[in-house]
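Table S5 (text form). Sequence records supplied for joint modeling of the two-component complex.
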Amino acid sequence: MDNNQNNNGNKASNQVITKTLEEMNKGLANNSNQLVFDPSTGEFVVAKPNQQLSPDATTINSIAQDGFAKTI
Amino acid sequence: MTPQRLQQEIAILEKYFPRKYKFENLYLDNELLDVGVKTQSGKVYRLNIKLKPDYPNSLPSVYVVYPLPLLKHDGSAISGASHDMHTLSNDGSKIQLCHYKPENWNPNHSLYRVILKARIWLEAYEGHLATGNPIDNYLTS
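The corresponding C-alpha coordinate record, covering 213 residues in total, follows.
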Protein backbone atom coordinates (compact mmCIF):
# COMPACT_ATOMS: atom_id res chain seq x y z
CA MET A 1 0.00 0.00 0.00
CA ASP A 2 1.15 3.48 -0.82
CA ASN A 3 2.35 5.42 2.20
CA ASN A 4 -0.15 8.16 1.36
CA GLN A 5 -3.14 5.88 1.66
CA ASN A 6 -5.06 4.23 4.44
CA ASN A 7 -8.16 2.10 4.72
CA ASN A 8 -10.55 5.02 4.49
CA GLY A 9 -9.18 6.70 1.42
CA ASN A 10 -6.29 8.79 0.33
CA LYS A 11 -4.56 10.43 3.26
CA ALA A 12 -4.35 14.05 2.27
CA SER A 13 -1.17 16.07 2.63
CA ASN A 14 -1.57 19.44 4.27
CA GLN A 15 -1.10 21.00 0.82
CA VAL A 16 -4.02 18.98 -0.49
CA ILE A 17 -6.13 20.05 2.49
CA THR A 18 -5.45 23.73 1.98
CA LYS A 19 -5.94 23.43 -1.79
CA THR A 20 -9.30 21.73 -1.18
CA LEU A 21 -10.34 24.41 1.32
CA GLU A 22 -9.30 27.13 -1.13
CA GLU A 23 -11.30 25.51 -3.94
CA MET A 24 -14.36 25.17 -1.69
CA ASN A 25 -14.03 28.83 -0.71
CA LYS A 26 -13.89 29.87 -4.37
CA GLY A 27 -16.66 27.54 -5.48
CA LEU A 28 -14.26 25.43 -7.53
CA ALA A 29 -14.44 22.26 -5.45
CA ASN A 30 -14.95 18.93 -7.15
CA ASN A 31 -17.96 17.67 -5.22
CA SER A 32 -17.30 14.09 -6.25
CA ASN A 33 -14.54 13.85 -3.65
CA GLN A 34 -15.26 14.39 0.02
CA LEU A 35 -12.90 15.68 2.66
CA VAL A 36 -13.41 13.44 5.66
CA PHE A 37 -12.14 13.30 9.24
CA ASP A 38 -11.17 9.77 10.23
CA PRO A 39 -11.20 9.55 14.04
CA SER A 40 -9.26 6.29 14.01
CA THR A 41 -6.18 8.15 12.72
CA GLY A 42 -7.04 11.77 13.54
CA GLU A 43 -6.32 12.54 9.88
CA PHE A 44 -8.25 14.20 7.11
CA VAL A 45 -8.62 11.96 4.08
CA VAL A 46 -9.94 12.51 0.57
CA ALA A 47 -12.70 9.99 -0.07
CA LYS A 48 -13.61 9.05 -3.61
CA PRO A 49 -17.21 8.58 -4.79
CA ASN A 50 -18.78 5.31 -3.59
CA GLN A 51 -15.81 4.60 -1.37
CA GLN A 52 -16.70 2.74 1.79
CA LEU A 53 -15.95 4.88 4.82
CA SER A 54 -15.68 4.16 8.49
CA PRO A 55 -19.09 4.64 10.13
CA ASP A 56 -17.39 7.06 12.50
CA ALA A 57 -15.96 9.23 9.70
CA THR A 58 -17.23 12.82 9.56
CA THR A 59 -17.55 14.73 6.30
CA ILE A 60 -15.70 18.01 6.54
CA ASN A 61 -17.11 19.69 3.43
CA SER A 62 -20.38 20.74 5.03
CA ILE A 63 -18.68 21.96 8.21
CA ALA A 64 -16.27 24.08 6.18
CA GLN A 65 -18.89 25.34 3.77
CA ASP A 66 -21.38 26.54 6.37
CA GLY A 67 -19.00 29.43 6.79
CA PHE A 68 -16.66 31.04 9.27
CA ALA A 69 -17.48 34.16 11.18
CA LYS A 70 -15.48 37.32 10.57
CA THR A 71 -14.83 40.36 12.64
CA ILE A 72 -17.20 43.22 11.95
CA MET B 1 -23.88 23.10 30.91
CA THR B 2 -26.18 20.59 32.46
CA PRO B 3 -24.85 17.24 33.72
CA GLN B 4 -26.91 15.50 31.07
CA ARG B 5 -25.40 17.58 28.29
CA LEU B 6 -21.92 17.04 29.73
CA GLN B 7 -22.40 13.27 29.50
CA GLN B 8 -23.47 13.62 25.86
CA GLU B 9 -20.39 15.73 25.06
CA ILE B 10 -18.08 13.28 26.84
CA ALA B 11 -19.56 10.34 24.93
CA ILE B 12 -18.86 12.05 21.61
CA LEU B 13 -15.38 13.27 22.59
CA GLU B 14 -14.40 9.81 23.87
CA LYS B 15 -15.30 8.44 20.48
CA TYR B 16 -13.49 11.04 18.38
CA PHE B 17 -10.76 12.55 20.57
CA PRO B 18 -10.07 9.97 23.30
CA ARG B 19 -7.63 11.09 25.98
CA LYS B 20 -7.00 14.42 24.24
CA TYR B 21 -9.38 16.62 26.20
CA LYS B 22 -10.16 17.78 29.69
CA PHE B 23 -13.06 19.77 31.10
CA GLU B 24 -12.19 22.40 33.70
CA ASN B 25 -14.27 24.48 36.11
CA LEU B 26 -17.33 22.36 35.51
CA TYR B 27 -20.65 23.97 36.42
CA LEU B 28 -18.95 27.31 37.13
CA ASP B 29 -19.23 30.50 35.11
CA ASN B 30 -15.77 29.91 33.59
CA GLU B 31 -16.32 26.34 32.39
CA LEU B 32 -13.97 25.32 29.59
CA LEU B 33 -12.78 22.44 27.47
CA ASP B 34 -9.02 22.10 27.03
CA VAL B 35 -8.16 19.99 23.97
CA GLY B 36 -5.05 19.02 22.04
CA VAL B 37 -5.28 19.02 18.25
CA LYS B 38 -2.76 17.70 15.74
CA THR B 39 -2.92 19.06 12.21
CA GLN B 40 -2.24 17.13 9.02
CA SER B 41 1.41 18.25 9.10
CA GLY B 42 1.84 16.78 12.59
CA LYS B 43 2.04 20.11 14.43
CA VAL B 44 0.34 20.15 17.82
CA TYR B 45 -1.89 22.95 19.10
CA ARG B 46 -3.83 23.40 22.30
CA LEU B 47 -7.26 24.97 22.31
CA ASN B 48 -9.39 26.31 25.13
CA ILE B 49 -13.10 26.33 24.36
CA LYS B 50 -14.90 28.56 26.83
CA LEU B 51 -18.53 27.82 27.60
CA LYS B 52 -21.07 30.25 28.93
CA PRO B 53 -23.45 28.98 31.60
CA ASP B 54 -26.24 28.76 29.03
CA TYR B 55 -24.24 26.53 26.66
CA PRO B 56 -25.33 24.92 24.30
CA ASN B 57 -27.79 27.75 23.67
CA SER B 58 -24.89 30.16 23.27
CA LEU B 59 -21.92 29.94 20.94
CA PRO B 60 -18.70 28.83 22.68
CA SER B 61 -15.53 30.92 22.35
CA VAL B 62 -12.43 29.20 20.93
CA TYR B 63 -8.87 30.22 21.80
CA VAL B 64 -5.45 28.95 20.74
CA VAL B 65 -3.35 28.80 23.91
CA TYR B 66 -0.36 26.90 22.49
CA PRO B 67 1.86 27.65 20.71
CA LEU B 68 2.05 31.38 21.35
CA PRO B 69 2.67 33.73 19.78
CA LEU B 70 1.13 32.45 16.59
CA LEU B 71 3.33 33.89 13.89
CA LYS B 72 2.28 35.01 10.46
CA HIS B 73 4.05 34.21 7.19
CA ASP B 74 6.10 37.40 7.54
CA GLY B 75 7.29 36.45 11.03
CA SER B 76 5.17 38.96 12.92
CA ALA B 77 2.66 37.79 15.53
CA ILE B 78 -1.05 37.53 14.85
CA SER B 79 -2.48 40.33 16.93
CA GLY B 80 -5.97 41.51 17.66
CA ALA B 81 -9.07 41.18 15.57
CA SER B 82 -8.42 40.55 11.92
CA HIS B 83 -10.87 40.20 9.07
CA ASP B 84 -8.30 38.46 6.84
CA MET B 85 -7.09 36.06 9.53
CA HIS B 86 -10.51 35.26 11.03
CA THR B 87 -9.40 36.18 14.54
CA LEU B 88 -11.38 38.09 17.14
CA SER B 89 -8.87 39.07 19.78
CA ASN B 90 -5.43 38.47 21.23
CA ASP B 91 -4.76 39.33 24.85
CA GLY B 92 -1.20 37.98 24.81
CA SER B 93 -2.09 34.71 26.50
CA LYS B 94 -4.49 33.41 23.89
CA ILE B 95 -5.85 34.13 20.42
CA GLN B 96 -9.58 33.95 19.84
CA LEU B 97 -10.62 32.32 16.58
CA CYS B 98 -13.70 33.00 14.50
CA HIS B 99 -15.57 29.77 13.94
CA TYR B 100 -19.35 29.30 13.68
CA LYS B 101 -21.39 32.25 12.55
CA PRO B 102 -23.96 32.95 15.26
CA GLU B 103 -26.79 32.40 12.78
CA ASN B 104 -25.42 28.95 11.91
CA TRP B 105 -25.07 27.83 15.52
CA ASN B 106 -27.73 25.74 17.14
CA PRO B 107 -27.84 23.76 20.40
CA ASN B 108 -27.67 20.47 18.51
CA HIS B 109 -24.08 21.22 17.48
CA SER B 110 -21.59 19.53 19.79
CA LEU B 111 -18.15 20.56 20.97
CA TYR B 112 -16.80 17.91 18.59
CA ARG B 113 -18.00 20.00 15.64
CA VAL B 114 -16.49 23.13 17.20
CA ILE B 115 -13.14 21.32 17.45
CA LEU B 116 -13.40 20.26 13.79
CA LYS B 117 -14.17 23.86 12.86
CA ALA B 118 -11.05 24.99 14.75
CA ARG B 119 -9.05 22.21 13.10
CA ILE B 120 -10.07 23.59 9.69
CA TRP B 121 -8.95 27.06 10.85
CA LEU B 122 -5.58 25.57 11.86
CA GLU B 123 -5.16 23.88 8.48
CA ALA B 124 -5.93 27.24 6.83
CA TYR B 125 -3.41 28.90 9.17
CA GLU B 126 -0.73 26.47 8.05
CA GLY B 127 -1.70 27.21 4.44
CA HIS B 128 -1.13 30.88 5.24
CA LEU B 129 2.28 30.06 6.74
CA ALA B 130 3.29 28.17 3.61
CA THR B 131 2.04 30.66 1.03
CA GLY B 132 1.51 34.03 2.68
CA ASN B 133 -2.10 34.06 1.52
CA PRO B 134 -4.48 35.29 4.23
CA ILE B 135 -6.49 32.67 6.11
CA ASP B 136 -9.56 34.21 4.47
CA ASN B 137 -8.28 32.70 1.22
CA TYR B 138 -9.07 29.23 2.57
CA LEU B 139 -12.20 29.72 4.66
CA THR B 140 -15.71 30.21 3.41
CA SER B 141 -17.28 33.26 5.00
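Note: The longest strand of chain A covers residues 34-38.
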